[in-house]
Amino acid sequence: MRSREELAAEQAAYWKGAGGTMWLAAYDRIQRGIAGFSEIALAAANAQPGERVLDVGCGTGGTTAELAKAVGADGHVLGVDISEPLVEAARARGLGNATFEVADATTHAFEPASLDLVFSRFGVMFFGDPVAAFRNVRHALKPSGRLVFLCWRTAAENPWGAVPMRAAQRFLPPMQRPGPEDPGQYSFGDRARVERILTQAGFSGLSIEPVDLMMNQGSDIPDVLQRIGDFGPLARAFKDLPPEQVVKAKAAIAEALKPYATADGVRLAGACWLVRARP
Ligand SMILES: C[S@@+](CC[C@H](N)C(=O)[O-])C[C@H]1O[C@@H](n2cnc3c(N)ncnc32)[C@H](O)[C@@H]1O
User: Fold this and answer.
1) CATH 1.10.10.60: does it fit domain 4-154+180-213+270-278?
2) Ligand 1: which of 14, 15, 158 to mutate, most ligand atoms within 8 Å of CB?
3) If residue 262 lies in a helix (H) or strand (E), which one and from where to where?
């Protein structure tokens, strides 16, 4: 079993390297796919003029920009992310009332009791030590503050990711299954685990609500296939695969996606938790 430090180092290396580069390249498409979830999370966060906000794992700053608009000139948003290339892209937005730091949310020295809102869209599932990370950001919240974040539920509840992966599986080398406490895309899928982490980190007043939406993965199957290996577990798997195996895996994915192709695009279900808590 890897230690928390090893897990954190592995995640940091991924997001500073290939993960960050691929996320950046695929960002526009990803953003279109998750737009519905994003709107719901930002509405729940309900950032107000003048508020001070932290966007955890802010990536390219897409949600930071939305939060900055909401808090206005009298407010401020700090975006933190462990990945240099992503923070560079976020800074290039040139937001007047937002600043960005390359930092690990687990250890960064945030100003104590200074924030009204800690927000994250899919940026909290990759901590090596999630209890320590949430405890750290909790200390940065004012007693009246709030935590609002969005995370994926389990892989089985997210066909947009699971259907292509299952179809491609027999052409891929065996992959190590993540342990129940390992960081990763679906690591917050188990509601009881999310509750335990937040409670141990000192949060109370937990609300963990399911959000289910259809996600448009592309205009048609060729469009999806063209970019299916751009980011995520399939990108990692395709990287070291002989090209003829990639072709076979993509053919299997095309077959599996047929039932989901509609006149409005290739649409598969996505499932998230919308989590709210008080410090
Ligand atoms: C799935 S991306 C989401 C990015 C962004 N929130 C968005 O929705 O566009 C996850 C982000 O979390 C960041 N991240 C992972 N571990 C982190 C940590 N310990 N501290 C800060 N950021 C982290 C990654 O670098 C990556 O940008």
Assistant:
1) no
2) 15
3) strand 261-262
- Ligand 1 atom closest to the Cα of residue 108 is 20
Cα–Cα distance, 203 to 40 (Å, whole number): 22
Residue 179 banded pLDDT, cuts 50, 70, 90: confident
**Per-residue model confidence as pLDDT tens digits over 56-105:** 999 999 999 999 999 999 999 999 999 999 999 999 999 999 999 999 99
Q: Domain residue spans in the chain?
A: 4-154+180-213+270-278
Q: What is the mean pLDDT of residues 263-270?
A: 95
**CA-proximal residue: ligand 1, atom 4 (nearest):** 59
pLDDT in tens, 202-252: 999 999 999 999 999 999 999 999 888 777 788 888 888 898 999 999 999
Phi then psi for 31, rounded to 5 degrees?
-60, -40
